[in-house]
Predict the structure of Prolyl oligopeptidase family serine peptidase.
Amino acid sequence: MTDSNGSTPNTNTPDTATRDTVTPDWEKRFRAPRVSLPDWAEDAPERSLFVSNATGTYELYAWDRATGEQRQVTNRPNGTTDGVLSLDGEWIWWFDDKDGDEFGVWRRQPFTGGEDEFATPGLEASYPAGLALGRDGRTAVVGRSTDEEGTTIHLAVAGEPPVVIYRHRESAGVGDLSHDGSLIAIEHTEHGDAMHSALRVLRPDGTTVAELDDTKGGAQELGLEVLGFAPVEGDTRLLVGHQRRGRWEPLVWDVVSGEETDLGLDLPGDVSAEWYPDGSGLLIAHGFEARSELFRYDLGSRELVKVPTPPGSVSGATARPDGSVEYLWSSSAQPSSVRSTTGAVVLDPPGLKSPGSVPVEDVWVEGPGGRIHALVQKPAGAEGPFPTVFDIHGGPTWHDSDSFAAGPAAWVDHGYAVVRVNYRGSTGYGREWTDALKHRVGLIELEDIAAVREWAVSSGLADPDRLILTGGSWGGYLTLLGLGVQPDAWALGLAAVPVADYVTAYHDEMEALKAMDRTLLGGTPEEVPERFEASSPLTYVDAVRAPVYISAGVNDPRCPIRQIDNYVKRLEARGAVHEVYRYDAGHGSLVVDERIKQVRLELEFVERHLGA
């Protein structure tokens, strides 16, 4: 890797070498340089863009595969991860939210280096709502969201004022721009269900070419997503994700003729796809029961052929022009790496290597809404019952998988068992499971967590007197809610960037999350006050008996600081045991030292109060 002036950082200084011998394994997992799956320019495939934490902060890097040169593109105190490489490989676009609050503007920098420039003159700061770049190097389709305007989508042509081609109060976003730039696919939620989008295809002048809406006819729990136009000149096929059979699957939609081609893939879990560069086939990503695999689907023969990958999780994959596939892989036991079906090492950052961890064990528990899948890690060679951390994932539309995670591994290193629950609301187990949490938000997830908790205690895994509930974002919300709703179940709670006061959070959060909350709860706090009250941790704060640790970013637009302060004041008013750590960032930190500090503070808090 090289820094912004082209030199190669020395990753093996005496200080680094000394630190390697004294740094504990849990900290090395955070410090070890890691990289994302490189994106490549469609018309200049030797040029790539990736994210790395090589400097201690996650930033964007340019990589010229022809010369091997790697150059740091961005350098900001709070880090940068949102970047797009132009199709000709000449420009790197990146989103500049100065305070980490996700509110900012697009800037761009030449691939070979140089000064940043404002990429979209005439467009003020906003939350991003998608970006698609044209093949001509002059055209961009820019999605913006603000609390005042809702969503607007603009056609921005270099040297001309940007033009609004779409506007709506509800959430929407740019999906893709066709190969020849004549068609623009957008996702929208004009029907009011923020969790299930419909699709519209526009001309550059904003006129509608085609519509695809699976929410019509009362089917409010079906959604669609744009997966991309065929990468072929004049091709009007759009790859679309749908939920018509109760799980995510791809279909091919010709937006001009209206013809839909159902692939009919006989795979049990959620399926996504992207085009092979020549448009003749699809790279299929199949996720099922917390693991994933890849296939190639030939559109002519309709043959499905497995792409060999090790057992574990593929968190990203792309088909290269030579037919090979590059993918980012990890397992709970092995750190992530960028691999290729050619057998070559795609991108191996120098410096400290991350230690491995113990593999997960799969557990299935009968719950009130069906079988619940949980992933369990415990100290190797030790006997239970263990002090046990229930590490609850965010989202809620997300899931824990058999992939490498430094946070859970840190707890295992310190003698704790870790249980991660894919509660109702999680993805990867069918649409019915994902959509089950509506209206009784939070309470349904806690029922599933309680069922797995009962299994953990009765099986001898967990010590019932040393159970810790923790999570970030939605997991932090469920932590605070669980401490109040299930006060006898938990010895401690650790909540990172949580929803704590649901009504205040709704009024202060970014507009896209307001729309999601209206969908989940069936209205605004004024329309359904009883649902917001039943689902808010603040309602139950006086029942909390366990010591509580809360960490929060002061610039967070998703779980804003004021609603957390309201919750903390209630704890203070009754002298409840708690600690609060506020840091200068948004919804989490991209700075490695900051992340390590937060984990260390959590470990120390538990040690003080639990003595585990």
Summary: The chain is about 20% helix and 35% strand. Confidence is low (pLDDT under 50) at residues 1-18. The two ends are 41 Å apart (CA to CA). Residues 361-610 form a domain with the Rossmann fold fold (CATH 3.40.50.1820).
